[in-house]
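Hello,

Our lab assistant flagged a job as stuck in the queue for most of the afternoon. It eventually completed. Since we weren't sure the result was trustworthy after the delay, we are filing this so someone can double-check. Below is the sequence as submitted and the structure that was eventually returned. Let us know if re-running is recommended.
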Amino acid sequence: MAKMKTYTLDELKDKAIGKIGTPERDKYEADLKEELQAYHIGEAIKQARKAHNLTQEQLGERIGVQKAQISRLERGKNVTITSMMRVFRAMNITATLEVSGVGKVALC
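-- returned structure --
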């Protein structure tokens, strides 16, 4: 029986996307970071909603959007500063945004 070659995740990324420092790999890493940040924002919205004992539908009613839009926000899709502000205001939550090189900025 032939021994199967194994690869590390970094080796697979190098082969499929490009080595670190190439434009393709830099774009991949930047996109991944952006998606992770959106995911964390969505989780924060979800946790806050649940802490306030609200359903997605109830939160949507408070800010004037459908339940589906709240679901998308909680999954990190279509997250904008404006939508975050509306959500946190609807729950009377003070939120701050940390901007690299600038510091913290109050959202609401």
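-- support follow-up --
The delay was a queue issue, not a problem with the job. The result is valid. The mean pLDDT is 90. The CA atoms of residues 9 and 15 lie 10 Å apart.
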